[in-house]
Amino acid sequence: QVQLAESGGGLVQAGGSLRLSCAASGRSFSSYGMGWFRQAPGKELREFVAAISWSGSIYYADSVKGRFTISRDNAKNTVYLQMNSLRPEDTAVYYCAAEPKSSSTFSSGRYYSPNLYDYWGQGTQVTVSS
Question: What average pLDDT score do residues 99-121 get?
């Protein structure tokens, strides 16, 4: 089991940057696939943003490709989301999620589906002003 805690959100002007962190506690962080999702105001569903597998394979939503970068530091049990060239439409609560290697979420290519992640953080608010 793993517990997740996001940090780094805030208010930024359009074109600015933020770096989100997700610290994991528990065992075997390196054997988890990690994802970032976001939920915009008034939206019911969490939208896939980026994911990184235990082996370092990286995936992005088309809407953030070229602007956001996901990375992980297994020594620090932390996954990061560097967000550049932020836009007002990036405004959302950002969540990190974890799924163990033993599941098929990443191996089946379904890393984009929030329903398949077992562990979630509490979220961090990102607001981009125009």
Answer: 92
